Amino acid sequence: MSWNWDHVWDSLPFLLEGFVQVTLLVTVVSSAIAAVLGLLIAIARRTAPAPIAALLTFVVNFIRMTPIVVQLVFAYFAFLALDALTVGILVFGVHYATYMAEVYRAGIDSVPKGQWEATTALSMSRSRTWRAVIMPQAIRATLPALGNYVISMFKDTPFLIAITVADMVSNALEYGGDHFRYVEVIVLAGVLFLIASYPTSLAIRKLEERIAFTT
Amino acid sequence: MPSPHDLDPSTPAIRFEGVEKRFGDNVVLQGLDFEVARGDRVTLIGPSGSGKTTILRLVMTLEEANEGYIFIDGEPLTHTREGGKRVALKERHRNEMRKRIGMVFQQFNLFPNMTVMENLIEAPVHVLGLSKADAVERGRELLARVGLVGKEDAHPSSLSGGQQQRVAIARALAMDPEILLLDEVTSALDPEIVGEVLEILRDVARTTDITMLIVTHEMHFARDVSNRVMMFDGGRVIEQGDPETIFTAPTQERTKSFLSAVLGA
């Protein structure tokens, strides 16, 4: 196996284009959707009437138990009115929302019963209880797991190739096909993923430390 | 809503009428009747599992009775009688009733995500509608009262157990309750700091007319603070009276053996 640096420098702009325009965009927007939707699902499963909560649980499990590629292709052909990138963002957002909902649920359950009782003893409203007492404590407990799902989503973005969205990896494959040289571009794509995800994991750890309840 | 001072002074602050509480098949309280007069300091004593804490939790609406009625200032707390039937009252009514009642827990239950001052002003601002400035001023007064001036910006995790419990007492008082429930407030504390917490509660008892319902194993404290002691066993009151009589001349065999076990230890 030979290594040619020319292919690295030559393909870099093309890969970066796919990275910024698709990989990063999908990760950021879909993470935001997943974080908010996941929270809503978690709260709904705890507060909604039993039949609605049961239905929600079924839907959540259904999404969690099927591969994201299948969901991407299904949504791509089911919602032809939407462009492929929008479908990709929505599917990633909803898919990871179901995982994040489980994380939030565990975080909410980890808040001691005594905290709920204290809010009752202080006559606090339900909404204030969630907002001021339960969520700040639940989210602190869930932050590492949520962050890991963001990184995991980031690494799943190459699946977008299944619905013709050209992310960094698909650009790398295209370059490889044009030049009959795959090794350099694929290694480069891998390194770019690493360069992006490693600092992200460090940033998550920093954030965890910053919001710990100490003086 | 009438102020408690407009009420007939003979209306009891708390009244239990035929209250029954079961957890599954386990009957914790059965046919329980008792009254606590306004301004009374009543200590509940008895072996563990006799339902003392359950009584406090019923008053705070943390638990719901299976049968019977509880009245606060003569008003039904969670259930009322309508045409001979027991009818549950709406959450809105319960929440209004709750505002008259404060509780201090064995495990403090301060909010760890808030500073001491934020713990103190959370409910006064968002429940009672005080301005933040007024709530903070009141918070400072209460901190002075529990001997924690300068701890405004500390987080609960940086305080000792005794300090946390003092903040919890201040937090309950910040709501200006008519009734204060004290649930084994010194049981989680090291013996050498039990005194500092009890001293503050003695001071509250001396300087306010808050009705207190106390569950404690500190018999000296019960004797100092309360004007009535109720001995529980098997989910009912088996003996009650002023602390002097109960502690020195109990009539029931069960009370005698309980007291000699607790005081002898």
TrEMBL record, chain A:
Q: Which Pfam families match?
A: BPD_transp_1
**Highest taxon in the source lineage:** Bacteria
Its localization reads: Cell membrane
Q: Which residues form a coiled coil?
A: none
Gene Ontology MF annotations: transmembrane transporter activity
Cite the ABC transmembrane type-1 domain residue spans from the record: 20-204
Q: Which family does it belong to?
A: Belongs to the binding-protein-dependent transport system permease family.
The protein here is known as: Amino acid ABC transporter membrane protein 2, PAAT family
Automatic annotation (TrEMBL), chain B:
Using the record's annotation, list all stretches that form the ABC transporter domain: 14-259
Q: Topology with regard to the membrane?
A: Peripheral membrane protein
Q: Which InterPro entries match?
A: AAA+_ATPase, ABC_ATPase_HisP-typ, ABC_transporter-like_ATP-bd, ABC_transporter-like_CS, Ectoine_EhuA, MetN_ABC_transporter-like, P-loop_NTPase
Which GO terms of the cellular component aspect does the record hold?
Answer: plasma membrane
The protein's matches in PROSITE patterns, at most eight in alphabetical order, are given as: ABC_TRANSPORTER_1, ABC_TRANSPORTER_2
Keywords of the record:
Amino-acid transport, ATP-binding, Cell membrane, Membrane, Nucleotide-binding, Transport
The GO molecular function terms of this record are: ABC-type amino acid transporter activity; ATP binding; ATP hydrolysis activity
Q: What main location does UniProt list? A: membrane
* Record-linked Gene3D superfamilies: P-loop containing nucleotide triphosphate hydrolases (3.40.50.300)
Does the record's keyword annotation contain GTP-binding?
Answer: no
Q: Is Membrane tagged as a keyword? A: yes
Cellular location(s): Cell membrane
State the family it belongs to: Belongs to the ABC transporter superfamily.
Spell out the protein name for this chain: Amino acid ABC transporter ATP-binding protein, PAAT family
